Amino acid sequence: MVKVSGTSGRRGLLGFGMAGGLVFATSAIARDTKKTGAEEAVSPPEDLMREHAILDRIMLIYDNALRRLGQGEDIDPAVLVQAATLVRDFVHDYHEKSEEELIFPRFKNGGRMVELVSVLATQHGAGRKLTERILSAAPQARSRDAREAMGKDVQAFITMYRPHTAREDTDLFPTLRHLVTDEEYKEIADEMEKRERQAFGADGFEKIAKKVAEVEKVIGIYDLEVFTPKS
Questions:
Q1: How far apart are CA 129 and CA 119, in angstroms?
Q2: pLDDT tens by residue, 34-68
Q3: The whole model's pTM is what?
Q4: Which of 68, 66, 29 is nearest to 50 (CA)?
């Protein structure tokens, strides 16, 4: 069987994830609305879309891991544990809660896209259940039964979240600006920054992105060139 990483890469991944849970020494990327000159504030939609990009990269890790497991390669279970932990801590516990508490109510109160918001909220709940099951099965990924059960949940997660995030990015987030006043828009941005600082510390977005990159390097998909067609 083919190993996806050497001992040093595996130790590095296990060190930052498996021994005591995921610890994010992190915080909010700057969204200071008082910045001047070349530096501009990050709007709530832009911020949420960047966080979607983190999820997109994790789903690429999921995709790659499932393919390699299906081909009989020996994938370190820590890869899947770490990916699912990032989903739980950053996507479910932070990003989605921000959407549910700061974004969705504006649409419900304004009578806009109410049905879409309801479906999105339902999918958040379904996603959390899938991640719980993935985290439970991932440590036993070398076991055939656990791998098959986990594989179904990972595929269901990807199948749901790719259209979920796309619909938010194209339909929901661009409409937010038209539902709130300038002051409310700023308040949303400030509250998102506050929550990120409370959850992760300073420079949170960059630190989360680095954690994702560490997993990508272990599984061999960090270099963008690997996705370029060879012919």
A1: 16
A2: 443 334 578 999 999 999 999 999 999 999 999 99
A3: 0.82
A4: 29
d(CA 136, CA 116): 30
Decide if 186 contacts 58 (C-beta within 8 A).
Answer: no
Tokens of 4: 């996806």
User: Which amino acid appears at position 109 of this protein?
Assistant: N
Among candidate residues 52, 179, 49, the one with its CA nearest the CA of residue 105: 179
- What CATH architecture applies to the domain 7-223? Up-down Bundle (1.20)
Region at 43 (left for phi over 0; alpha for psi -120 to 50; beta for the rest): beta
> What are the tokens at 133?
């099951």
For 64-120, where are the E strands, in sequence order? none
Domain locations along the chain:
7-223
Interatomic CA distance for residues 130 and 93, integer angstroms: 14
